[in-house]
Amino acid sequence: MNISIIVFPGTNREKDMGMAFSSLTGQQPNFVWHKDTDLPQSDLIVLPGGFSYGDYLRCGAMAAHSPIMKEVIHKAKSGTRVLGVCNGFQMLIETQLLPGALLRNKTLKFICKQVSLRTENTDTSFAHHLNDGDVIRVPVAHGDGNYFANEDILKSLEDHRQIAFRYCDTNGNVTGEANPNGSTQNIAGIYNKEKTILGMMPHPENATQIHQGPLEGKPLFESILNQAA
Amino acid sequence: MKVTVKVTLKNGVLDPQGKAISHALHSLGFDGVNDARQGKMIELDVAEGTTEDQVKQMCEKLLANTVIEDYQIEFAA
Predict the structure, then answer these.
(1) Cα–Cα distance, A180 to B45 (Å, whole number)
(2) Global confidence as pTM
(3) Contact residues, chain B, for A65 at CB < 8 Å
(4) CATH for the stretch B2-75
(5) Of A85, A149, A204, B51, which sees the most CB atoms within 10 A?
């Protein structure tokens, strides 16, 4: 599988993302610089975490208009799978490949800690190695992860089973206390309608190696690589 | 030619920074403050003849995220 990880000035999680894939495949993904206008043939495009363009204007706003993104948007719209994590999720929102918005955390603090996520839809090529309702422990590290969606968007997300993960407690209960950043309905990650694009604030790539702690992000990468569903 | 663009969060969108500002004003003794909303102001120096419609496009494409933000355009007199 050809994987392209897009690197912007200020991106800092691309190596972690690369390792999450290469430790399973034995192959290094392509790292593609944002100024390139040609994207190598890719089965999966990854927008990794970091602080692209220093988070100027709005997180992800500048990256969304960089040269390579035209190509990424084009490919995404033609069905190439795209994974956006953290700042990558913010870019998917800014390019409107995914609906809603990501606001400053309700606490105004940068949050860096382990959270529990309840898997909401496993009938997708990103999560078929998990079961609906499975709880995974993965870290978050963000200042602007407060997912916002109006009633219409929420209804559409529900109707099309687009909610991928919700913040929950260790038993899988979706509670206010388990919501780290004030996200609407504890939403931590969403799909597009076709389930070919996944954007999420937490970092599953940082739960794939022994030295990182729990390996509970791994099933996502196994799902992506085994590509059924 | 100067153009000022004001970008503010839409009504109903939570503004944690505005909340913090309003709390801080209360703790300074300004009891009359009911609410605070924070936005941003962008001053553009544009070519003579730039139309409001062109600035509008700048707002829609980049300066504002219209899912959560409103914008106001003011041309300097």
Answers:
(1) 41
(2) 0.93
(3) 61-62
(4) 3.30.1280.10
(5) A85
